[in-house]
C-alpha cells in the first residue's frame, strides 16, 4: 500500500495546496510561493472536502430529516431525546463519575434498532473492562466495535473505514490530539476533538454520543464549554437511592421538559416506565404535619410527589431556607405570600423543604401544595389524607391556573386520591369537565387554606 504523504506544498499567498512542488501556484498565479508544510490526517481530511464548493439551497428544497430517528431500544432515553436518536446529531451525556454514563451508552449501543455499524470508543477503560461490564449486563456485543484509544488521529481513520451509524465516546475527557497540545482533558483538547468528531458525524449521517464527567461541586467548566457545539445536552442526576434522572438541558430536536427515569440494578440501568408511585410515601391514617401531596407535570407525565416541610425558630438573626429539590427562591416567595396574605409568620423561622424520592421539582404547579405543607408545618395541623394539590401562587395571593389540570386530576384518582384541590379550570378545560364533588377549586390562598384545614 502506498504510504500517505504527511506533507503538502501550500501557497503562502492564497493557501492553495498541491501534492508536489510547483514553481507557480495554479490558483493565484504567484511565483515561488509553494512551501512544504506538514499536514496531519485531520487537516488533510478537511481539505478534501473543501473541494466541494459550498452552495446555498432554497429552504423549501431542504429535507427536514424527520423520520431519520433511530430508536435506541431504551424508551426512557428516546423520550428525553424527543423520540429517538436523531441521525447527524451530537449528544453530550454529562454526569458525575459512577452515575451510569458508560452503562447507558453501552446498553444503547447494544439495543439500538439499526442495521448500521456501531463503534464504542473507550479512552477510559480497557477492552477487557468494557467486556466485563458487557457480560454483567448480558450484552454479547456482536454488533459493537470497540476502539480502546483516546488518540483522535488513530480514531478518525478507523471511523472513515468502518462508517458507523452510531458512535459512542467514553469519555470526552480522554480524547487528545497532538494538534491541540499533548495533555488530554484540557478545554482546548476537548473542544478540538469534539469538533472533529461532530464534523465527522454530520458529514457521514451518523449520531454521536459524548460522555462527559461533571464533578459534584458543579465544576463543569470543561463540558459546559461544549454545550453550544452539540445538538442535545443530557445530564444524569441521582437521588439518595438507586433512582437516576436523565434530563435534557438543551435539545434541538425535542422539548427539554421530559425526564428519563432509571433504577441502577444488578443488570445495569432498568427503565422506570410508571413512576407515579415512586415519589409518594405509603401512609395510613392521619398525615404528620408538614406533609402535602402535589400533582406536578414532568414533561408528558404527571407525577404525584410528597412535599415535606419543617419550620423551626431561626437559629441566627436572619431566617434561612434549606431546600435543594425545590428552588429555594420559590420556597421563600411562597413563605412570604403566606405571611402577607394569611398572617402566617415565617420570617423568624428557618424553613426546610424536601421532596420524597429525591426528585427535583421545577414545575410551577407545585406552589399551592408547598404552601399547604408550610402552613401545616408551622401550625402543626395535618393536611387531610388522600388529597392531591396543584396550583400556582401569585404574589397577590391568587391561585393561578396550571396546565393540564384534568390530566392531573385523572392521575391522582387512578392512584387512589379521593380529593383534589386546584385552581379554577380555564375556559377550555371547564367545558368538558362535568361537576365533580371530589374536586375543590379555589381562587386565592385564603380559601385554599380554609378548604384544607377546616
Ligand atoms: P458507570 O456506567 O461506570 O458510570 P460512569 O460511566 O458514569 O462513571 O456506572 C457505574 C456504577 O453503576 C458503578 O458504581 C457500578 C454500578 N453498576 C451497577 O450497579 N450495576 C450494573 O449492572 C453496572 C454495569 C454498573
Ligand atoms: Mg464511565
Short description:
With 454 residues, the chain is an alpha/beta fold. It has helices at residues 41-50, 75-81, 101-111, 127-137, 152-162, 187-203, 221-224, 328-342, 367-379, 405-414, 427-431, 445-453, and strands at 7-11, 17-18, 34-38, 69-70, 85-86, 89-95, 118-122, 144-147, 166-170, 207-213, 232-238, 243-251, 259-265, 268-271, 291-298, 301-313, 321-323, 349-355, 387-389, 392-393, 399-400, 419-423, 439-442.
Report on the structure:
The protein is an alpha/beta fold and 454 residues long. It folds into three domains: 7-41; 68-273, 3-Layer(aba) Sandwich (Rossmann fold); 278-453, Ribosomal Protein S5, domain 2 (2-Layer Sandwich). Helix content is 27%, strand content 26%. The chain has twelve helices and 23 strands. The protein has helices at residues 41-50, 75-81, 101-111, 127-137, 152-162, 187-203, 221-224, 328-342, 367-379, 405-414, 427-431, 445-453; strands at residues 7-11, 17-18, 34-38, 69-70, 85-86, 89-95, 118-122, 144-147, 166-170, 207-213, 232-238, 243-251, 259-265, 268-271, 291-298, 301-313, 321-323, 349-355, 387-389, 392-393, 399-400, 419-423, 439-442. The strands form five sheets. A nine-stranded mixed β-sheet has the order 8-7-9-10-6-11-12-13-14, with helices on both faces. A seven-stranded mixed β-sheet has the order 17-18-16-15-19-22-23. It has a three-stranded antiparallel β-sheet with strand order 2-1-3, with no helix packed on it. β9 (166-170), α6 and β10 form a beta-alpha-beta unit. α8 packs across α9 and α9 (367-379) crosses α12 (445-453). Magnesium ion (MG) is lined by residues 101-102, 124, 170. Thymidine-5'-diphosphate (TYD) is lined by residues 95, 97-103, 133, 136-137, 264, 266-268.
Amino acid at each position: 500500500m502506498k504510504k500517505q504523504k504527511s506533507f503538502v506544498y501550500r501557497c503562502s499567498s492564497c493557501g492553495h495546496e498541491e501534492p508536489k512542488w510547483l514553481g507557480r501556484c495554479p490558483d493565484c498565479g504567484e511565483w515561488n510561493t509553494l512551501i512544504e508544510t506538514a499536514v496531519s490526517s485531520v487537516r488533510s481530511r478537511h481539505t478534501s472536502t473543501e473541494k466541494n464548493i459550498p452552495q446555498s439551497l432554497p429552504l423549501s428544497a431542504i429535507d427536514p430529516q424527520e423520520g431519520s430517528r433511530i430508536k435506541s431500544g431504551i424508551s426512557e432515553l428516546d423520550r428525553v431525546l424527543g423520540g429517538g436518536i436523531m441521525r447527524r446529531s451530537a449528544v453530550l451525556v454529562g454526569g458525575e463519575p459512577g452515575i451510569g454514563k458508560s452503562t447507558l451508552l453501552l446498553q444503547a449501543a447494544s439495543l439500538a434498532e439499526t442495521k448500521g455499524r456501531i463503534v464504542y470508543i473507550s479512552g477510559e477503560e480497557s477492552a477487557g473492562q468494557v467486556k466485563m461490564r458487557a457480560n454483567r449486563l448480558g450484552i454479547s456485543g456482536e454488533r459493537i466495535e470497540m476502539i480502546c484509544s483516546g488518540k483522535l488521529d488513530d480514531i478518525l481513520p478507523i471511523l472513515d473505514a468502518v462508517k458507523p451509524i452510531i458512535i459512542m465516546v467514553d469519555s470526552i475527557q480522554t480524547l487528545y490530539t497532538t494538534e491541540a497540545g499533548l495533555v488530554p482533558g484540557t478545554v482546548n483538547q476537548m473542544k478540538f476533538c469534539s469538533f472533529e468528531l461532530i464534523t465527522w458525524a454530520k458529514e457521514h449521517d451518523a449520531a454521536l454520543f459524548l460522555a462527559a464527567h461533571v464533578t459534584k461541586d458543579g465544576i463543569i467548566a470543561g463540558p459546559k464549554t461544549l454545550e453550544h457545539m452539540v445538538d442535545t445536552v443530557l445530564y444524569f442526576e441521582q437521588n439518595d437511592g438507586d433512582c437516576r434522572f436523565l434530563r435534557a438541558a438543551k435539545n434541538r430536536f425535542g422539548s427539554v421538559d421530559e425526564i428519563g427515569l432509571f433504577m441502577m440494578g444488578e443488570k445495569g440501568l432498568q427503565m422506570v416506565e410508571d413512576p407515579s408511585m415512586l415519589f409518594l410515601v405509603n401512609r395510613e391514617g392521619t398525615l404528620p404535619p408538614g406533609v402535602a401531596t402535589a400533582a406536578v407535570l414532568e414533561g408528558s407525565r404527571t407525577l404525584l410527589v410528597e412535599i415535606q416541610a419543617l419550620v423551626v425558630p431561626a437559629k441566627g438573626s436572619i431566617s434561612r431556607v434549606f431546600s435543594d429539590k425545590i428552588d429555594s427562591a420559590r420556597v421563600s416567595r411562597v413563605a412570604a405570600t403566606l405571611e402577607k396574605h394569611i398572617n402566617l409568620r415565617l420570617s423568624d423561622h428557618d424553613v426546610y423543604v424536601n421532596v420524597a424520592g429525591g426528585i427535583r421539582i421545577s414545575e410551577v404547579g407545585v406552589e399551592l401544595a408547598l404552601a399547604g405543607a408550610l402552613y401545616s408545618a408551622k401550625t402543626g395541623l395535618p393536611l387531610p389524607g388522600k388529597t392531591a394539590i396543584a396550583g400556582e401562587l401569585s404574589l397577590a395571593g391568587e391561585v393561578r391556573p396550571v396546565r393540564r389540570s384534568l390530566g392531573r386530576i385523572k392521575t391522582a384518582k387512578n392512584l387512589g386520591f379521593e380529593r383534589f384541590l386546584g385552581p379554577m379550570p380555564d375556559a377550555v378545560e371547564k367545558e368538558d369537565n362535568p361537576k365533580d364533588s371530589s374536586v375543590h377549586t379555589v381562587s386565592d390562598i385564603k380559601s385554599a387554606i380554609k378548604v384544607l384545614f377546616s
